[in-house]
Design brief:
This protein is mainly α and about 210 residues long. It has helices at about 5-45, 55-80, 105-140, 145-155, 160, 170-175, 180-190, 195-205.
Length: about 210
C-alpha cells in the first residue's frame, strides 16, 4: 500500500470534513440551548432548609431560639397588661431566594444569559467553520500539481491585509479635509477618539460625498 494520498482519498476526506462540520455546528446550537436552559433553572431556583443538612440544623436552631425569645416577649406583655392579640412578637423565616426573588432581576439575568449563550454559539460555529476550512484547504492544496497553482494560493490576500488597522492621525486628517459626514465627526468627538470606539463609529456612519469630484 502506498503512503501517498490519492485523489479519491482527498475527495472522501473533504466530504468527511464537511459532514463533521455540519454535525458540530448542530451540536453547538444544541449545547447553547442546554446552557441557556440550565441558566434559567439556576435563576428561577428556590432553596429549602431540607436541601442541605447544615441548613436544616441551623434553621431548626434559629426557630427554637426565636420561639423561646417570643415566649419571653409574650410573658412580659402579660405583665404590662397588653392583650395577646395586640402584643408585639418575634419571628424568623427562611428565604429561599436572594436577589433573584425580584422579577426585574430575574429578567435581567435571563437577558444576560441569552446574550452570552448566543455569543458562545456564534464563536463555536465560527471556530468549527474555521477549523473545517483549514482541513479542507490542506487537502485541496495537497492535491495541487503545479507551482503556478500553488503560487495563486499564496497570492490570496488575508482579511488582515484587506483591512489595515485604523489610526487616530489618519482619522483626524480626514476630519480636517472634510471627508467625514458631520454626524460622524460629532460621534468621533463624543467617543473620545480611542481606536475601538472610532472603529465602531466608522462602521455605521457613511462618508460624505466629495462636493467637488474634480
Amino acid at each position: 500500500m502506498s503512503d501517498a494520498m490519492t485523489r479519491r482519498d482527498r475527495d472522501d476526506l473533504l466530504k468527511l470534513a464537511k459532514l463533521r462540520e455540519r454535525i458540530a455546528k448542530d451540536e453547538a446550537k444544541q449545547r447553547a440551548a442546554e446552557l441557556l436552559a440550565t441558566a434559567h433553572q439556576q435563576i428561577a431556583r428556590t432553596y429549602s432548609p431540607s436541601d442541605d443538612e447544615t441548613w436544616k440544623v441551623l434553621d431548626d436552631a434559629a426557630e427554637a431560639f426565636v420561639a423561646e425569645a417570643d415566649a419571653k416577649v409574650a410573658s412580659r406583655c402579660r405583665e404590662l397588661g397588653i392583650p395577646e392579640r395586640f402584643r408585639p412578637s418575634l419571628d424568623v423565616r427562611w428565604y429561599g431566594r436572594g436577589e433573584n426573588a425580584m422579577k426585574d432581576r430575574r429578567a435581567e439575568l435571563k437577558a444576560v444569559a441569552q446574550t452570552r449563550c448566543a455569543a458562545l454559539e456564534k464563536k463555536a460555529i465560527a471556530d468549527i467553520g474555521r477549523n473545517s476550512a483549514a482541513v479542507q484547504e490542506r487537502l485541496m492544496i495537497g492535491g495541487l500539481e503545479t507551482a503556478a497553482a500553488r503560487a495563486e494560493v499564496d497570492a490570496m490576500p488575508t482579511a488582515a491585509q484587506l483591512m489595515p488597522p485604523l489610526d487616530v492621525a489618519s482619522l483626524e486628517e480626514a476630519v480636517h479635509q472634510g471627508r467625514l459626514a458631520p454626524a460622524a465627526m460629532a460621534a468621533l468627538s463624543s467617543a473620545g477618539l480611542d481606536d475601538r470606539a472610532i472603529e465602531h463609529v466608522l462602521d455605521s456612519l457613511p462618508l460624505e460625498a466629495d462636493p467637488d469630484p474634480a
